[in-house]
Amino acid sequence: MTRKAASSAIQLTPTGIAAKSSHEFGKFTHSLSLFSSNLYNLGHKHRSGSPKPKIDFSTINDVDDVICLFRDMLRMHPQPFIRVYNNLLSVVVKMKHHCVALTVFDEMRRIGAPVNEYTYSIAINCYCLLNRVHFGFCILGVMFKSGNKPDVTTFGTLLKGLFLDDKVAEAEKLFKKLLVFKICEPNDVMILTVINGLCKAGQIVSAFELLHLLEKTRWKPNVKAYSALIDGFCKGGMIDEALHLLSQMKAKSVSPNVVTYNSIIQALCKGGMVDDALHLLSHMTGKGILPNVVTYSSIIQGLCDVDRWEDVDEMLGEMDNCKIYKDVVTFTILVDAYCKEGRVKDAEDVLEVMMKQKICPDIVTYNALLEGYCMQGNMNRAKNVFNSIVDRDLMPCIITYNTLIDGYCKKGEIEEAWGLFLEVPRKGLKHNAHTYSTMIHGLFSKGKSDDG
């Protein structure tokens, strides 16, 4: 990296982030230092008496084990290689103890343990996952001051952090600066991070323009980047643009895969264009691309929505013939569709098949079945379903409560509905507009009935 490039890289930190970071970072690292002193005592309490402790990451089960092993490593002579320290940090990150990983990192720097670019990148990643990307940029500054050179992984992590923190414009500017100042060579992961991040933020046009810009460079987008943009078009209701980009991929020597096709098939089915989806499925298989459970689930959903039950049976049979196993999503689609048709017994049969195949229904599955019984006014069975949710250690959500409250209100059982209404905040949930409107309507209807 040239001196000019390094100077440019230091200036990559967005102005607002830089102003916010310097003061807060000092306070946060001070709190980590206080935390690390407590962990030091904890490590002393449990540390091994062996003069040459064995480094075995498989023995790590909790934070205490992390600290004990870290203290053992610090007492070893010679010191473990940098990659060993990095492996320890990676294990802690996988445990999702990001603050603990940062505490270990801070302690490593304090006592002069070896660190490299990868170590810094792990710390940056932790700050990003804690939604403190501005501290990640502080670490970037520390890297430069210590003579370490950030690589594509470092900058890719910072880009991911900006998107996680909804700093979309800053992420786009940073990526473009990396290209202009030639700070690092973007790889496929970085390009995907930016394209996907822009699409999820609703900036589809910016994502398309960026993809078009990259097509003219040596950093050609791969199939994952194209698929992310196609998915963005589809979720934004721009199916024609998605189909056009799909047709362009061949000209760009980029072969679409099942993920690419799935996005468009799902969008077509949601838009009621099931025949177009089936035609695209035929086109896909003709190209030698095999459909998966996501493909079939999308088409089954589309067919259910337009009451094409014979075609649904045909698709289910095709899945069996191709040995594509139904998952919880496929089964839930069927449960929901049967319940909406008033075929609750068929929905129960689907649930039984799930159990036999050891596929656990989730809260969405149970909510669909619950709604089916409520629509029929069968509140006893609905309450049984609700009890099954609790018995299976699933967490009822606000949709669960809204459905049950609505069912009781329509049956005129206002006391039952009111009891559930009061239970919602006790379960750590919040009433929404639907909860209030349902309950108010039920109370009003009960009042009119009493007056009559």
Uncertain regions: pLDDT < 50 for 5+ in a row? Answer: 1-6, 42-51
Overall mean pLDDT:
89
Number of strands: 0
Q: How large is the share of residues in beta strands? A: under 5%
Principal-axis shape: globular
Count the DSSP helices. 24
Question: What does the largest sheet look like?
Answer: none
Helix content: over 70%
Structural class: mainly alpha
End-to-end Cα distance, whole Å, is 84 Å
Q: What are the secondary-structure elements, in order, as H or E?
A: HHHHHHHHHHHHHHHHHHHHHHHH
Radius of gyration: 28 Å
Structural key phrases:
single chain, 452 residues, mainly alpha, 24 helices, 73% helix, disordered N terminus
Summarize the structure in short:
This protein has 452 residues and is mainly α.
Write the layout of secondary structure elements.
Blueprint: H1 3-10, H2 15-46, H3 63-74, H4 82-94, H5 98-111, H6 117-129, H7 133-145, H8 152-164, H9 168-180, H10 188-200, H11 204-215, H12 223-235, H13 239-251, H14 258-270, H15 274-286, H16 293-305, H17 309-321, H18 328-340, H19 344-356, H20 363-375, H21 379-391, H22 398-410, H23 414-426, H24 433-451
